[in-house]
């Protein structure tokens, strides 16, 4: 009984540690942001239609998280039967833990915190498999877009564009090797055994919701750009948006520092198609608030299942 009580205290302490760290990073970002006048000036210029578009972007958030919760539910199927509501809870708690950790490494430990101890490591491993699938989708759509972007924009000389493109490929390859050289240390035999228990049907569902989540992310960004007076043709959107998510995904960062990262890469991806640089930066920051900060706030208020 004492061991169970100590284990519960340890998990609760870790949960509070993730939460405090996330809020400290958020507070730091709020206090050090130096473009509030421009930010609120642009918001004040939104028309009713643009506020309506912003509301649609916000309403897409639950569907975004539904895709991730469904993926998580089916990823866990070899270990346990997880209800969709419990999977939603796990996803929110993972987002809290991810907010202040480099490259969101705390996300899956945060998700499994209240699971039985013997299931935590296999669940974390399965979570990384789901993350890898998402990265594959971003890579598959983003790589051709990156090539097209740097090959065709007029402000980058063609030899330079090839150097940039080649450099990105090398960088992504190095990040991937380092990423998986660490993950492979996580009980590789147990990981292979666990993955082998995923049925073909479950793998298809996981892949389907991975693609669907990517599509929702892309549509949210497209609407947000329109809201901030960045008007892209369908062809431009198919180049710039996948290129943007590619650049953001393969840039090491912490979630709390993402506004700067996202704003910088947004300039690279969208400036060739629009001169409205403040609008580009604002679209990236607003989307980060909706998909990053709001889930953090919600996740921090949720009680763990034992208390519900």
Structure description:
- It is a single chain.
- Helices cover 78% and strands 0% of the residues.
- It has helices spanning 2-32, 36-44, 48-59, 61-75, 84-98, 107-111, 117-152, 158-183, 188-196, 200-227, 234-249, 258-270, 277-301.
- It is built from 13 helices and no strands.
- The longest helix has 36 residues, at 117-152.
- The chain is mainly α and 308 residues long.
- Helix 1 crosses helix 5 and helix 4 crosses helix 5.
- The two termini are 21 Å apart.
- Residues 154-163 have low confidence and may be disordered.
- It has one domain (2-307).
Task: Give a quick precis of the structure.
The protein contains 13 helices and no strands. It has 308 residues and is mainly alpha-helical.
Average the pLDDT over all residues and give the rounded result.
77
Main pleated-sheet profile: none
How many separate domains?
1
Quickly give the structural class.
Answer: mainly alpha
Portion of residues in helices?
over 70%
Number of helices: 13
Strand percentage lies at: under 5%
The beta-strand count equals 0
Tell me the Rg in angstroms: 20 Å
How far apart are the termini? 21 Å
> So what's the overall shape?
globular
Uncertain regions: pLDDT < 50 for 5+ in a row? 154-163
- SSE sequence, one letter per element: HHHHHHHHHHHHH
